[in-house]
Amino acid sequence: MSIVSSTRRKVILGLGGLAAYSVSPIKVQAGQAIQGKRNLEFYNIHTRERAQGHYWVDGIYQENTLNDFSHLLRDHRENLSAPMDKRLYELLYQLNKTLNISEEFHVISGYRSPKTNQMLASKSHAVATKSYHMRGMAIDIAIPDVKLSHLREAAISLELGGVGYYPKSGFIHVDTGRVRIW
Hints:
Elements: H1 3-23, E1 37-44, E2 50-57, E3 60-61, H2 63-72, H3 86-99, E4 105-109, H4 114-123, E5 138-142, H5 148-158, E6 162-166, E7 171-175, E8 180-181
Parallel strand pairs: 1-4, 6-8
Antiparallel strand pairs: 1-2, 2-3, 4-5, 5-7, 6-7
Helix pairs in contact: 3-5
């Protein structure tokens, strides 16, 4: 047998073994970082609807729960919903952890249609014309049993996006844009 055909046979046998290995099921133990469940609870103060659920289980986002959340966080004026940024849910989950609570978030504003945002911006300088709300990247919230100033400080400490403070209106704004405070 020539050296070439001997080498070719080893390569072919090696590939066959690799192919057989690649289709064999492999059990992988999930690391602690992706094991577990993450839960959130919301109450929309305008529609009086509630939604809660595990939005993340063992590293996998739960589409049904995310769809329920997007519906609750919809623009109630136009009755339009949009997918919310998953990082926003992570921010809210971390906010609860930082406060060492698992309370329901009272939602003042989630997704906003461009029409609604334009209407609100025309009435108030506090509403950005290119708001992250229109991209599903922002939410205005309060937690009834948590002082608004504590909620704000906890959100700032996370450094996960923008944090706005509206004590006269009774809410804070958080978004997944660049880190900034107002």
